[in-house]
């Protein structure tokens, strides 16, 4: 599991990366196995979602975000290279897990100055075990579902309380069973090892659960909910 | 329903609030119109009369003549016509045809055919409506069930063990049982004196013991028993017994206890002490040497009293009168009552006597619990070490058989039953003879004929509230003229009211606690309003600290005191010691339960001689609906009241007061004014003035907490209360209470006088003398308490689903020994409840649940001071559930259960349902006795019940080839399919039946379901295991001696969840595959399965059939069901009762376990039902609804169309929500919850918000378990 400490926010403008680099067409290629497809779709989505959450929850100043279009809706993506790198690296490491259906949850924890979590955005993932992708319509359906989820994230501040100033975030992965052991063997990215998360980061007292969205498709079932600390300040 | 509708409207701030809401305004306007139109109509027609004066009709549905015509007729003939039905004002309902529902709603109302009006007009006088009643039989039905219950109860009265009407507190002001009563200020004063008194007392008792000298084994035994018995006497502070009966204290202690507890038994009603003393003789009679001892002990008690132990003195003298007097007759009595002990009097030696005795005690009380130690205790030569459980086994039933608390509860019920019995009897006789009425008629005839004219022209409802004046006192004083006019109190204490203090007790502390509590109340009040008049409860608080020094006074409460005593400041419920201070020449009188019963009975008889429209409130008060009576007799209410009072005075020698008013509320309030020994009619014109001056606390339902809350709102009188708007009240007190308050403070009350009241809960509670040392004690206590509950439920013929465990725990910091001996002292209350899947009255089940709850509460047994068990959500256990009163929520389940034959296995304790082999196989066999001849079954192939979609379960190796139809008939498989060994293992009679049915079948071979006919009966199972069925060989079933095979009908291949399939063990997979292959071979017309299918080689035969069935079923809930509930839970009961019951064996199989656990949890109608067998996680549905919009519609209909949610339905919703959590569909869950919150909390019924809270609580628990946090509900 990964722990990332935020550096002082930088303000960079004009850095424009087209994010929607994976096109759906690539995903339907016959040579890709099913798990890989799901992992790609999911990681792509997670990246968008994490950026958006960072924006919506005001973890970083809005200046580092830029408006893009993804899933046919506007999203906000960070332009901060280090931040982006962190997110990408993390997801890159998560991908093999998803591929093997070993990741149970991907959690984005927002912590206050004392590194006590105030909010946890939990992406709970479950994949149907034995199904395969058959047609393209299926994927467009998935896209619709993901879009709905993105939209839900963009309005989630309506149901959440404001965070205290100076928050940081970290990404955690809840793995199934003994997947961690394998993880340590294979280091996907050099110098980017997984760390077992502190109890402090995982555990949140008096948490309230706010379900945001659930999607059910043939290849993927995912739900997003937020656990929010009752007393944030 | 409609009333609720009005309330809702009235509650909205629509500008009609001032006139009691829009509806009220409209109704009064309609009435005005009617009055205005009447004269002109009369002119037009010319034939007016006053036949119907006092009659107000409401036309329901189509009538001939029409409603308009009836309205005209009523105008002409002096009647009233109501466009809207009001229970209190409308006298007759005119209808020619009514739906069942309405009949039930209108039970007890006069539903009359329109001919009554036309015929009356023809006859020129108001005919009796009786012949014109629309539904005579409906009433008969109601009362028949009542009768049955009545019989049960009356029979139980005659049992000597069951307490008959004994209850001490006559005064309606403090109906609360005294030992749950908070110690009021009197505690405060009894502190120091206690100490001294106690010491003297103690030494006395030591003397006692010594006098008894050789306290033999038996006397030890006796020491146990009195302790046990003493418990009943809840408010005798000086009953020096203790739940320490449970823990072996020092032997000296027990002896001590023995010393003066015994008399207390005699202080009870004689019957009880009979029983008690009989037991004595059981002990001593066969072992003669003990007899003198016990007797001598009894006799010694009184003598002790003279020697200075004052606290108990009065009890002692009691025993001197009671117990010795009884003793002579005991031997003979004992014979009929205790066959067992007498049957072998000589055989057992002395030590065993104790045992026998134990058993008898238990039996005596009619409870069925076994005394666990009865065998182990054979050696009673070691009495002090006797296990606590033994003493306890009888403790509870003893407690309840004597507890005044218990008497209070039975008291009113008994009179209700009495009234009911009277009613039904008179109905059976075709009309009652009312002697009182006759007398009154004569009286009136004797009067001048002028009084005929004086008879009230306007019919107005008139309720009489008859209340005996300080009941217990006047009963006691009846035969003691010397006490008349003196301050008299009925209490168990007769000394100067001083007792010694026990170690560990700290009355001062308790006193301070309660004082602080009082002060808190005051503070709240003064905060709220400075010019507050203190509420009556506060008046009793002695704020002077002087009283503190005068402590150690008797804490026996005064059950009732005479008016003379009241003048001196004595109040009911006061501690005797304190009262004695206030009024030094206060005379105390002992209880006399027999006399109370006699007097109360004769009071009710008197009332019943006038009318049967009586609602029993308690032993000494009753409500009488005299509306009809007055019209019939043509007398004024005052005359009637006077006659009744004179009658009562004559028959009982006690005085009664009568309050009269147009509704119950006013009648009760008038009684206050009427007292003592008077009558008062609160006329409608003076109601307003009268009620404005009344303190709010005089309103029913306004207790201490509510009045303090009201005080904080600046309200002390009803007049103040009237100033508050209804919305404000509803905000403060909740929708229902607010509405009630709003109406009550205006003198409005439309509660009808009901002779029969429905029970809401059955409970047993004991918070006296609870001192556990070990968890096991608490456990066995709970078990015994559960047995007591079972007994009561059986007595009432009820079963319940919700079990609540209430525990009183010593408040941290409170003294270990409370001021009142054996009392609970200052306590914190805890309660937990659990909901069972099915209603039960099984004590064992209740006990199991209670113990679970108890452990879940994680309490320290040592601090337990009170335990109560309550069972709610009752339904009749044997009666047709649909025949329950209209106030019950309605559910489809009732309907279905009603349709189902009575042998739906209600007797089975729910926990066993569909769980274990043995019990269910018994169910099979019992079903089998009702086996229909096998000639018929295939005809029901398209049976509509969702439960049967499983197609019936086959047990080819067991002889019962079970098929579940709606009527749970069972098809016997053909002989070839039956495992001989299993057949042989069956009981002979069943085997014979099976064989017989085979023979029967052979005679009619053409009708049997053979291989030739499978296509037509495809939804019923094909007979051979070879066809589309799967044989599961279950091995090593625990508790299942013979190996049993089950044949399940295979679901469609498409429905087989590949994941589950993959998870199955290898052999099972193979078996499945081959089964499918067989199926495919046998029925070649199958359709090829889609490529997703894991078994592409298999065919799928029954697709068409199944599809058709889906369609049918899908259509029905959407369109057919008239009630939304029907839609909500169509599969509810059949799914629960039939399929899961007949499907117990697969449960045992590990591979199938999950799905079957899930299967009942899915509301089980549509696809998921059929899928569930092989799909581990069916999509959660609520009554077949899956889409959120559908669910929303369902919920909305449910909430809006039903006034009181049924537990069943709530549970279904909870279940659905739980499934959503399991299905990881939190979003939908969240939406559903939020939607329900909106719906239910908006509902005018507070039940709904309670229902929501319940649902939410349950869901939160599940979410908490799954996610570690709870849902945020804003």
Automatic annotation (TrEMBL), chain A:
Q: Which UniProt keywords apply?
A: DNA damage, Nucleus
Start and end residues of each HORMA domain: 36-226
Q: Indicate where this protein resides in the cell.
A: Nucleus
Q: PROSITE patterns, per this entry? A: HORMA (PS50815)
Q: Which SUPFAM superfamilies match?
A: The spindle assembly checkpoint protein mad2
Record's keyword annotation contains Ion transport: no
Q: Provide GO CC annotations from the record.
A: nucleus; zeta DNA polymerase complex
Specify the superkingdom: Eukaryota
Q: Which GO terms describe its biological process?
A: DNA damage response
| Pfam families associated with the record | HORMA
- Tell me the protein's name: Mitotic spindle assembly checkpoint protein MAD2B
Automatic annotation (TrEMBL), chain B:
Chain ranges of the UmuC domain: 463-703
One GO term describing the cellular component? nucleus
In terms of domain of life, where is this protein from?
Eukaryota
- For the ligand (Mg(2+)), the binding residues are 467, 620-621
EC identifiers of the protein: 2.7.7.-
Q: Give the GO biological process terms.
A: DNA repair; error-free translesion synthesis; error-prone translesion synthesis
- Where is this protein found? Nucleus
Extract the Gene3D superfamilies matched here. Answer: 3.30.70.270, 3.40.1170.60, 5' to 3' exonuclease, C-terminal subdomain, 6.10.250.1490, 6.10.250.1630, BRCT domain, DNA polymerase, Y-family, little finger domain, DNA repair protein Rev1, C-terminal domain
Q: What PANTHER family does the record point to? A: DNA REPAIR PROTEIN REV1
What family name appears in the similarity comment?
A: Belongs to the DNA polymerase type-Y family.
Its protein name is DNA repair protein REV1
Tell me the lineage of the source organism: Eukaryota, Metazoa, Chordata, Craniata, Vertebrata
């Amino acid at each position: 599991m990964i722990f990332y400490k935020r550096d002082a926010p930088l303000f960079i403008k004009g850095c424009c990366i087209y994010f929607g680099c994976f096109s759906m067409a690539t995903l339907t290629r016959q040579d890709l196995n099913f798990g890989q497809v799901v992992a790609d779709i999911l990681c792509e989505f997670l990246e968008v979602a994490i950026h958006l959450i960072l924006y919506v929850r005001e973890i970083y100043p809005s200046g580092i975000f830029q408006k893009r279009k993804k899933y046919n809706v506007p999203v906000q993506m960070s332009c901060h290279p280090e931040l982006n790198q962190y997110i990408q690296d993390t997801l890159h490491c998560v991908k093999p897990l998803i591929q093997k259906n070993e990741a149970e949850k991907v959690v984005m924890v927002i912590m206050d100055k004392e590194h006590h979590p105030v909010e946890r955005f939990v992406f709970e993932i479950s994949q149907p075990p034995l199904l395969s992708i058959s047609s393209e319509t299926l994927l467009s359906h998935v896209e619709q579902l993901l879009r709905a989820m993105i939209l839900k994230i963009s309005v989630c501040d309506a149901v959440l309380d404001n965070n205290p100033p100076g928050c940081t975030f970290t990404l955690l992965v809840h793995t199934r069973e003994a997947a961690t052991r394998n993880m340590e063997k294979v280091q996907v990215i050099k110098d980017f090892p997984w760390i077992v998360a502190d109890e402090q980061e995982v555990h949140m007292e008096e948490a309230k659960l706010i379900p945001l969205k659930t999607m059910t498709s043939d290849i993927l079932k995912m739900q997003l909910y937020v656990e929010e600390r009752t007393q944030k300040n | 329903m409609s009333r609720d509708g009005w309330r809702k409207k009235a509650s909205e701030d629509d500008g009609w609030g001032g006139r009691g809401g829009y509806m009220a305004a409209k109704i009064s306007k309609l009435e005005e119109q009617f009055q205005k139109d009447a004269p002109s109509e009369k002119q037009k027609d010319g034939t007016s009369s006053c036949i119907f004066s006092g009659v107000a009709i409401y036309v329901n549905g189509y009538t001939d003549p029409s409603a308009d015509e009836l309205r005209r007729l009523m105008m002409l003939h002096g009647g009233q016509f109501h466009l809207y039905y009001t229970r209190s004002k409308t006298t007759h309902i005119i209808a020619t045809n009514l739906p069942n529902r309405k009949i039930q709603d209108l039970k007890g109302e006069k539903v009359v055919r329109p001919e009554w009006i036309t015929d009356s007009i023809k006859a020129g006088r108001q005919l009796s409506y009786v012949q014109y009643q629309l539904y005579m039989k409906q009433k008969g039905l109601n009362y028949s069930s009542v009768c049955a219950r009545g019989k049960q109860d009356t029979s139980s009265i005659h049992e000597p063990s069951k307490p008959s009407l004994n209850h001490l507190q006559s005064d309606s002001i403090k109906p609360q049982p005294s030992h749950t009563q908070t110690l009021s200020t009197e505690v405060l004063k009894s502190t120091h004196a206690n100490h001294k008194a106690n010491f003297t007392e103690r030494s006395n008792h030591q003397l006692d013991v010594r006098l008894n000298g050789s306290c033999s084994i038996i006397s030890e035994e006796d020491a146990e028993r009195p302790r046990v018995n003493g418990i009943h006497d809840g408010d005798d502070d000086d009953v020096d017994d203790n739940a320490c009966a449970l823990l072996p204290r020092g032997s000296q202690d027990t002896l001590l206890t023995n010393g003066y507890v015994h008399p207390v038994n005699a202080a009870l009603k004689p019957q009880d002490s009979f029983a008690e003393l009989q037991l004595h003789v059981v002990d001593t009679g066969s072992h003669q040497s003990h007899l003198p001892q016990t007797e001598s002990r009894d006799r010694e008690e009184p003598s002790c009293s003279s020697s200075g132990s004052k606290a108990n003195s009065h009890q002692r003298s009691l025993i001197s009168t009671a117990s010795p007097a009884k003793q002579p007759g005991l031997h003979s009595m004992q014979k009929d009552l205790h066959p067992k002990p007498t049957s072998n009097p000589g055989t057992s030696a002395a030590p065993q006597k104790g045992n026998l005795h134990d058993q008898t005690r238990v039996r005596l009380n009619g409870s069925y619990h076994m005394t666990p130690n009865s065998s182990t205790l054979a050696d009673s030569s070691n009495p002090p070490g006797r296990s606590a459980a033994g003493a306890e086994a009888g403790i509870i039933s003893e407690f309840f058989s004597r507890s005044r608390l218990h008497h209070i509860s039975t008291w009113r019920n008994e009179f209700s039953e009495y009234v009911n019995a009277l009613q039904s009897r008179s109905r059976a006789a075709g009309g009652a003879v009312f002697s009182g009425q006759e007398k009154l008629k004569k009286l009136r005839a004797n009067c001048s004929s002028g009084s005929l004219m004086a008879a009230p022209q306007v019919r107005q409802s008139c309720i009489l509230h008859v209340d005996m004046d300080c009941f217990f006192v006047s009963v006691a004083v009846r035969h003691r003229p010397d006490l008349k006019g003196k301050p008299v109190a009925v209490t168990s204490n007769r000394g100067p009211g001083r007792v010694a203090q026990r170690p560990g007790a700290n009355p001062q502390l308790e006193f301070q606690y309660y004082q602080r509590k009082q002060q808190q109340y005051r503070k709240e009040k003064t905060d709220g309003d400075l010019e507050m008049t203190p509420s009556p409860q506060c008046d009793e608080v002695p704020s002077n600290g002087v009283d503190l020094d005068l402590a150690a006074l008797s804490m026996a409460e005064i059950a009732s005191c005479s008016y003379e005593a009241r003048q001196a400041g004595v109040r009911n419920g006061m501690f005797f010691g304190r009262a004695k201070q206030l009024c030094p020449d206060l005379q105390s009188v002992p209880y006399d339960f027999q006399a109370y019963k006699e007097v109360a009975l004769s009071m009710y008889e008197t009332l019943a001689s006038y009318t049967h429209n009586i609602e029993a409130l308690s032993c000494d008060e009753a409500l009488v609906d005299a509306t009809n009576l007055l019209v019939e007799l043509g007398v004024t209410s005052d005359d009637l009241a006077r006659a009744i009072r004179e009658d009562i005075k004559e028959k009982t020698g006690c005085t009664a007061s009568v309050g009269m008013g147009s509704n119950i509320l006013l009648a009760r309030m008038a009684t206050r004014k009427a007292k003592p020994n008077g009558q008062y009619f609160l006329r409608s014109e003076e109601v307003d003035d009268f009620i404005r001056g009344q303190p709010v606390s005089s309103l029913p339902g306004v207790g201490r907490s509510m009045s303090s809350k009201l005080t904080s709102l600046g309200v002390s009188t009803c007049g103040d209360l009237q100033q508050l708007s209804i919305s404000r009240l509803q905000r403060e007190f909740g929708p229902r209470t607010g509405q009630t308050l709003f109406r009550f403070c205006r003198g409005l009350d439309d509660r009808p006088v009901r002779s029969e009241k429905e029970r809401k809960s059955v409970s047993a509670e004991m918070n006296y003398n609870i001192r556990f040392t070990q968890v096991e004690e608490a456990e066995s206590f709970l078990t015994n308490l559960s047995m007591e509950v079972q007994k009561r439920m059986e007595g009432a013929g009820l079963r319940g689903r919700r079990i609540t465990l209430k525990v009183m725990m010593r408040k941290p910091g409170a003294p270990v020994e409370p001021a009142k001996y054996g009392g609970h002292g200052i306590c914190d209350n805890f309660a937990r409840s659990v909901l069972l899947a099915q209603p039960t009255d099984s004590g064992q089940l209740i006990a199991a649940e209670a113990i679970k709850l108890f452990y879940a509460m994680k309490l320290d047994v040592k601090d337990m001071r009170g335990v109560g068990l309550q069972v709610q959500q009752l339904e009749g256990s044997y009666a047709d559930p649909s025949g329950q009163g209209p106030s019950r929520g309605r559910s489809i389940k009732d309907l279905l259960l009603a349709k189902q034959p009575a042998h739906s296995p209600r007797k089975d304790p729910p926990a066993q349902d569909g769980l274990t082999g043995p019990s269910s196989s018994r169910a099979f066999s019992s079903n089998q006795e009702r086996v229909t001849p096998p000639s018929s079954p295939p005809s029901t192939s398209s049976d509509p019940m969702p439960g049967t979609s499983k197609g019936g379960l086959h047990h080819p190796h067991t002889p019962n080839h079970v098929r579940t139809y709606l009527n749970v008939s069972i098809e016997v498989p053909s002989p070839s399919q039956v495992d001989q060994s299993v057949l042989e293992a069956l009981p002979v009679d069943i085997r014979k039946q099976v064989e017989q049915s085979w023979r029967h079948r052979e005679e009619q071979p053409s009708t049997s379901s053979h291989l030739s006919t499978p296509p037509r009966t495809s939804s019923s199972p094909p007979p051979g295991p070879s066809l589309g069925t799967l044989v599961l060989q279950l091995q090593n079933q625990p508790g299942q001696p013979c190996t049993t095979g089950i044949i399940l009908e295979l679901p469609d291949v498409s429905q087989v969840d590949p994941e589950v399939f993959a998870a199955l063990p290898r052999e099972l997979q193979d078996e499945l595959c081959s089964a499918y292959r067989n199926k495919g071979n046998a029925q070649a017309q199958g359709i090829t399965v889609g490529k997703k299918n894991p078994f592409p080689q298999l065919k799928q035969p029954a697709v068409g059939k199944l599809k058709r069935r889906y369609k049918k079923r899908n259509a029905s809930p959407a369109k057919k069901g008239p009630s939304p509930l029907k839609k909500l839970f169509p599969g509810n009961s059949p799914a629960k009762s039939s399929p899961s019951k007949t499907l117990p064996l697969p449960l045992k199989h590990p591979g199938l376990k999950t799905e079957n656990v899930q299967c009942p949890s899915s509301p089980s109608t549509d696809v998921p039902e059929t899928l569930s067998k092989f799909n581990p996680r069916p999509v959660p549905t609520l009554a077949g609804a899956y889409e959120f919009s559908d669910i929303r519609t369902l919920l909305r209909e449910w909430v809006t169309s039903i006034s009181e949610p049924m537990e069943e339905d709530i549970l279904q919703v909870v279940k659905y929500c739980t499934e959503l959590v399991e299905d990881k569909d939190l979003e939908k869950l969240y939406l559903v919850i939020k939607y329900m919150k909106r719906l239910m909390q908006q509902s005018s019924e507070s039940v709904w918000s309670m229902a929501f809270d319940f649902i939410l609580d349950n869901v939160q628990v599940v979410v908490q378990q799954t996610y570690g946090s709870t849902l945020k509900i804003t």
